Amino acid sequence: MLKVLYQDSLIGKKQENQDAFLVKSFDNGDRLLAVADGMGGGVMGRELAYYAIEMLQELFSKPLEYPQEKLKHAMRSINDELRKLLSIYSVEDHNVEDIQKGGTTLCIAYYREGVVHYVNIGDSRVWVWREGEMINLTLDQNEYERKRLENIYTDEEDKRFIFRILGKDSSLVVDEMLKSERWLASGSFELNADDILILSSDGFHDYIDEKDDGFSLALFWAESSDYNFDSILDGIEERSNDNITAIIAKEEQ
What we know:
This protein has helices spanning 45-59, 67-87, 143-149, 171-179, 202-205, 213-222, 230-239, and strands at residues 2-10, 19-25, 31-38, 104-112, 115-121, 125-130, 133-136, 186-190, 196-200, 244-251. By secondary structure, the protein is of the alpha+beta class. The strands form two sheets. The chain has a five-stranded antiparallel sheet. A hairpin with a 2-residue loop joins β6 and β7.
C-alpha cells in the first residue's frame, strides 16, 4: 500500500498558482498521482494545468488493468483536448502573440502492488529517493538537459525553455516523445520498502540542493516514520521564484 506523506501546492512568489496536482485512491489499493505546471507567461497556463488534472480524473475513474499503456493514451488524449481549447482562443482579443499561447507540463505516476508506472511531458519530475541518493526518473525536457546531454554550454536560463509541453505539440510529436528512451518520457520500476517516491513541479526541484543535509535527513527519517515536510517547503519557498508543488509518498510498513 502506498502512503502519501505530503501533498501540497504553494503559490510562492507568483501572483497566481499555475500548478495543479492529483492524489487519487482506488478501492483495490491502487494510487494515481500527478503534477501539472501551467506554462508561465502563456495564456491559459493555469486553466490548462487544472483541466489536464480534471481530464485525468475522468479518464481514470476505475483501476487500470494495463497502467503503462493507459498512461500514454491519457497523455495523448489530454494533449489533443488542450490543443482544441487553445485553437478557439483568440490571441488577437487578448493582445498577445501566438507563440505565447499556453501549455502545461504533466507527470503522472500510477502505483499498483509495489510497482510504479510513470509518464512525463515537460519539466515536472517523477523521482525516487533510494539508499541516500536522488534518482530522477524523467529527465527535464528543456534546453538545459538537451544541451547538457550534447555537451553544450548551459546556463540557468536554459531551464526556462521547455521544448515539449502539452497543448503546443501535435499528437505525433507527443507520441515520438513517449517512445524516446533518451528522454525517458515513460517507464516503470519496483518501489522498494525504503524508497521515497516524489512528484514535483520545477518550482520545487529547481530550487533544492539534492545534497542538502536538511532535505536528506528529512527523507532519511521518512524511510522509517512519518515526517512533517512543511519545514522543507518553507526553505524552498524562500529561494523559489515559482509555484511549488510536491507529492511525497512511500510504501506503508
